[in-house]
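Chain A, query sequence.
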Amino acid sequence: MEATDVRSVVAVGFCCADVYQDLGRFYPTGNGVDWGVHLVRMGVPVSVVSVVGDDEYGARMREALAGEKIDVSHLRVEEGDTCVMLMGLKDGVDRVHLREVEGVMAGYALTPEDDAFVRSHQMFHTDLFGNVLDHLAPWHEAGMLGVMDFSVFSEDPDYHCEDYFPYVDYAFMSYDGDDMGHIRAWIRHVQEMGPRIVTATMGERGSISYDGERYYEGGIVVPPQVVNTVGAGDSYIAGFTYGLINGWDVPACQRRGAELASQVITKFEPY
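Chain A, predicted structure.
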């Protein structure tokens, strides 16, 4: 593939603080935030457009992301609590979400200034939970490249994903890989609705992408030790995106995604 005209990217929408009360640990996160941290560490300029509260978590999130050299000029501070995910550990390695405190994220909406700032970038990342779904069509029509993580919800009628597929260039979704025939048919169906490439990640089964011409099956990179499995999906998408930006072919994008995911699951931190 030819390199895309991407000089900067923006993660827009959902963000939160993952809080492990029993361990006394906290991390700024959210699908787009994790994606952005990985990309900026690989040399891609990244901005975050979202909201935090005027509490300690909000201040620490802004400080931590700024320390990663991410542009937080539009990570808005509002009166109230930062969105928090209370986390736990299952079997010592699987991070699990115990409870969400939505805080200021519940009423978040882009201002006209935020929207203009997003449009100053060539590529955006978002998901289903950032309160920006109404902006997908206008951004697409303006020529922005869209990366969207549909997680495990791409076929869930409650999320109306078919309303959004036409306005996304690179769609990602997650499966357990048990029914490959169904997954192949579904990602082809999604790609025919508009995205350039649709990719399903399937844990230990690797990944499969469809670009309108053929399917590409990507394997995994087996890590020496698994410390934490959550965060693998966001890191895979970041690695794949890095390949897209640099004009790599689909197999190379898949390999970079798998390599990055393998690195992430060998440590506790989400990136």
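The mean pLDDT is 91. The two ends are 27 Å apart (CA to CA).
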